[in-house]
Design brief:
The structure holds two protein chains of two kinds.
Chain A (H helix, E strand, L loop, with lengths): L6 E8 L6 H5 L2 H5 L5 H4 L11 H4 L5 E4 L10 H8 L3 E4 L4 H9 L3 E3 L14 E5 L4 E4 L4 E4 L5 H8 L3 H13 L1
Parallel strand pairs in A: 1-2, 2-3, 3-4
Antiparallel strand pairs in A: 1-5, 5-6, 6-7
Chain B lengths: L4 H10 L9 E2 L5 E5 L3 H10 L11 E4 L9 H17 L4 E2 L10 H4 L8 E4 L13 E4 L4 H7 L4 E2 L3 E7 L8 H13 L11 E6 L6 H13 L4 E3 L4 H10 L17 E6 L6 E3 L7 E3 L10 E4 L7 H11 L9 E4 L4 H10 L1 H8 L2 E2 L20 E4 L15 E4 L2 H10 L12 H5 L7
Parallel strand pairs in B: 2-3, 2-5, 3-4, 5-6, 8-9, 8-11, 9-10, 14-15, 14-17, 15-16, 17-18
Antiparallel strand pairs in B: 1-7, 12-13
The chains are: A alpha/beta, B alpha/beta.
Amino acid sequence: MSEYPWQLRGHCYLLGDNVPHPGGVIPLSLITARETDPAVLIPHLFSETDSGFAERVRPGDLIVTGKNFGMGPKGCGYIAMQALGLGLLCESMSVQAYREAISTGLAVLNPCPQITTMCAMHDDLEVNFQNGLFINHTKNIRLEFPAIPKELQELVSKGGNTAWLKFWQESQKK
Amino acid sequence: MGLTAIEKVLARVCGKTQVIPGEIVYPNPDYIMIHDVLVRETKIQLDQVHIKKLAHPEKVMMFSDHDVIYGSQRAAERGKYNRQAAKEWGVTNFYDAGKGGHGHIFPMEQGIILPGMFYFDNDTHATNAGAVGAFGIRVGGEISRVLGTGTTWLTVPKTIRIDLQGQVNPGVLGRDIGFFIARSIKNGSIKADFDYRIIEFSGDLDQFSFGDRVALCSSPTELRAAGVFIPPSERILNYCQAHHQSPFTPIFSDPDAQYESTYTIHLEEIEPQIALPGNLSNSVDISESLNIPVQHAFIGSCGSGTYEDLLLAAAVLKDKKIHPEVRLFIVPGSEASTRRMLREGLMEIFYDSGAMILPAGCGPCNDAVVGPIAPGENSISTATNNNRGRFGANDAKLYLGSPLSVAASAVCGKISDPRALAISQELLHQIESAYV
């Protein structure tokens, strides 16, 4: 699992509480169409609230959210985040939303209590998703949040559900 | 320390003596369920990684309930794809369009899903299994992993207990209680977060029939619960004994089980409820929403798709006509219920009233593949939720009520209290023997 980039460093993209997945993260039409192609999804990530996000963002950037991120189990926006090399840190998200995010292979820390009070937009952040270490270099804050559970690290590191199934299938042949 | 029902059931399917909330486990399910909308993308995903054989095809149940009548070329092609997928996968428990009905209703009616069972499902409304004291847990797109490998990871949920005390008032049904719980969370009288919790009901439960129990499972699901558990009554167990298709062992929580929290609801305080548009937590007593005109109505869905719900609707509609400006869709939960409506005279009552009968399944509640609502119209229904755009135009107003309230409103052309109308007592009495 060492090849997976457990540690990300980048700029903070700060969001508030109760951001709905439809509209708040990605347009409803793509969710309804059950679109799963990252190339199709990426240009639409946060497009209804922040046009140009997908062009500005860089691999390693970290999305920091308030409570109840996604507001439900819908999840194709996480595919775009994972493909862009982003990480996600939420004060809270529903367990089913967390499941959707993890199953795309996205690096997620949840819950991260009060993290929105420790970050501002564009802060220089560094996070290790394997052990939960969080550093805000801009504000000189360092603390630990719950890491991705050990039982799920293989699923994430292989790249999510489909990639894990491929890994499993090949291991069965051996 | 005692265990809750979900902890006992998960321990059984994990081959353990006990499991602890928060623990990640890999259950060996009794069944694996997938509905028509998700088959194609799941099969493509498995084909991509060269998984052609399912781990346990004998456990898989495939349903065609979301888009039953193929309202588009795309849907017809999907139906064809699904039939081929069932063949390639060797799934014999395939309930194609017109062959079974609603996947969260008829497996309980037919004695397939039974007390103490556990299954994985791609869909949120798997929680309906709580009506017979079983558990279905949604895993979304990861149903592909369950199909391919036989299991997937699951975090053991915590359990919240809701104690229902007293007797329900006349005209109050399971859906009304669910809407009341939703508003109680919103107004803070229940200070609970249902996210991924099992909601276990206790208290004076013997008064609740199968239909009421299915209805009680509906609202917690929309409040993000992982499951609902209603300890099966003698009446439910007798039904299951009479119809079971496999052996089963009912499971109950231990008297000293540990709950995250417990709340009490006094049933006599509850009046018929109407959920105002946007969310079911916007529910109010029906007296606060009377006379709002409606043009669209339907009775059915996961929450109100039992034969009892059809009897309730028929009891209101008997010898009455739907208001000329209203279209009412009746959506049975199973093909068996449709045939029974024909045998027992309900079909005639509905058609005489001017209602339209759709094939068994989800009806308009699934993305409005049938019976959508137009911009600017108002709807009242027993849909599972009334989120914006749930079954048609985004600017339509979607109200929810019990089957009695929906039928009464369809007759009057405006939101109306069913207690103010003449209702066939003969049909209401048939509810007692609807599931025996």
